[in-house]
Amino acid sequence: MAKSYSVTSAGVNPADDRAHRMRMYFIAMSLRVVCVASLFWVRGWWVLLAAAGAVILPWFAVMVGNAVAHNGGEAPEAPAPAELEGSPAPRDEAEDPARSLIVMEVDPERRAAPREHPPAEGSS
């Protein structure tokens, strides 16, 4: 019996993911605005709570806003790679002359010297 394989494991729709991240960012930044505004009328240790919210919420909002859902689906089951029968064993590079590197020595002065082009025909 032949085994079937999944061609793709589609994850989260990018538009839905972006909309969710924008919603979460908006909620966190709205809470920050409430925290900043509440600094004007709260007293006591509540000021510390509101100040902490005003300072920490932007970091949280950016982290949530940038957290892209990479893949919500399951990973595809891949078959084992096929092997050719009767293929030769891999050879060492030193044994194979076609794989060797050829280095040509060039005089450095010749490389650095500008080329002189012959004058074009018809020019005086």
Number of helical regions = 3
Show unreliable segments.
none
**Main sheet properties:** none
Fraction of residues in helix: 40-55%
| Average residue pLDDT | 76
Distance between the amino and carboxyl termini: 84 Å
Biased composition (Basic and acidic residues): 107-124
Pfam family, one: DUF3099
Keywords: Membrane, Transmembrane, Transmembrane helix
InterPro entries: DUF3099 (IPR021449)
Kindly list the characteristics that best describe this protein.
124 residues, single chain, mainly alpha
Structural overview:
By secondary structure, the protein is mainly α. It has a domain at 14-66. Helix content is 41%, strand content 0%. The protein has 3 helices and no strands. Residues 71-124 are annotated as: Disordered.
List the helices and strands and how they pair.
Blueprint: H1 14-38, H2 46-66, H3 108-112
Helix pairs in contact: 1-2
Short description:
The chain is mainly alpha-helical and 124 residues long.
